[in-house]
Write a structure and sequence with these properties.
single chain, 292 residues, alpha/beta, Rossmann fold, 8 helices, 42% helix, binds NADP nicotinamide-adenine-dinucleotide phosphate
Length: 292
């Protein structure tokens, strides 16, 4: 395949992307490769928590991302780890430095989502989402940022959610983790600006990935659209799609991960050098309902 690393908006960059096995992470890996970045795809690629009830990716899915990155002309390395494991992330960052010469960009994107009413919550229902989504994102920053400092500057982008902008019925752990990521992003932007590192968040709306496209997620999607699902509707994809399409200004039920990736590319690019501490929504227009 043609090597695109000498051209594009991310030409010559080395980027680490977590949650790379599929969804937003995979789409961003491919978009980064098209723009000339070498891509290190990090993922556990195994079930991260017993609290989730949708299918999890395996090593093959991570390697499929690698195939797509190489097809787009990018250099690729995959690393399997659990982002709760800070020493593993530090070791991964060292390896990337050894093999690629340094690190310019971190897209800390991996996460899980599960729903449980507060009154029924077990410890794992709270801790797994806080530990993976919030602490895991902080771990990625703590492990990788020193290398970006050493490089003389770069970019960090994290993935929050619209649920980091409002409460979520039966989704308090996820919502809290995603609000927390906004606080983490803004604090990191304050601290790392002196090192010429920008730190921003992407706020995806409802994206068409395995995290949302499964039966137990539909009731929540319908409710957020302002309709009370009844009986069978709670697990019905068509009802969820119709309710979502009606409620979203741009008329789409789900947004494709490929529509999130270009925003991450922009935030990773030199063009975004004066953008830091900010949150960028990709919500199909849902953001128009926000007060601020
Ligand atoms: P996805 O397809 O499930 O991708 C998430 C990836 O993260 C999976 O490959 C998953 O693999 C990996 N991951 C989970 N826990 C991990 C851990 N402890 N260590 C390493 N990797 C781990 O979901 P997605 O929709 O692309 O989600 C990406 C990010 O966007 C998440 O932070 C999510 O919260 C956020 N987001 C998604 C939506 C949406 O509507 N889809 C909306 C707003 C925000 P394993 O589970 O095998 O580890």
């Amino acid at each position: 395949m043609a090597d695109t690393t000498s051209r594009g908006r991310l030409a010559g960059k080395v980027s680490i992307i977590t949650g790379a096995a599929r969804g937003i992470g995979r789409a961003t890996c491919v978009a980064f490769a098209r723009e000339g970045s070498a891509v290190v795809g990090v993922d556990l690629a195994a079930r991260a928590s017993g609290t989730t009830d949708f299918a999890q990716p395996d090593q093959d899915e991570l390697e499929e991302t690698g195939r797509l990155v190489k097809q787009a002309g990018g250099r690729w390395l995959s690393i399997r780890l659990d982002q709760r494991d800070l020493p593993a992330l530090r070791e991964a960052a060292q390896r990337v430095k050894r093999e690629f010469g340094g690190i310019d960009v971190l897209f800390a994107n991996a996460g899980i989502q599960a729903f449980k009413p507060l009154l029924e919550m077990e410890d794992a229902d709270w801790h797994d989402q806080i530990d993976i989504n919030l602490t895991g994102t902080a771990n990625a920053i703590r492990a990788v940022a020193p290398h970006i400092v050493e490089r003389g500057g770069g970019r960090i982008i994290v993935t929050s959610s619209t649920q980091g902008q409002h409460g979520t019925k039966y989704g308090s752990a996820y919502s809290a983790s995603k609000w927390g990521i906004i606080g983490l992003m803004k604090s990191a932007a304050l601290e790392l600006g002196a090192h010429k590192i920008t730190v921003n968040a992407v706020i995806p709306g409802l994206i068409d990935t395995p995290l949302t496209r499964h039966e137990s997620r539909y009731a929540q999607a319908i409710e957020v659209s302002g309709k009370q699902p009844t009986g069978d509707e709670k697990k019905d994809e068509k009802t969820a799609a119709e309710a979502r399409a009606k409620a979203t200004p741009l008329g789409v039920p789900w947004i494709e991960p490929e529509d999130v990736a270009p925003v991450v590319v922009f935030l990773a690019s030199d063009e975004a050098r004066m953008v830091s501490g900010a949150a960028y929504d990709v919500t199909g227009g849902d953001s128009a309902h926000n007060v601020a």
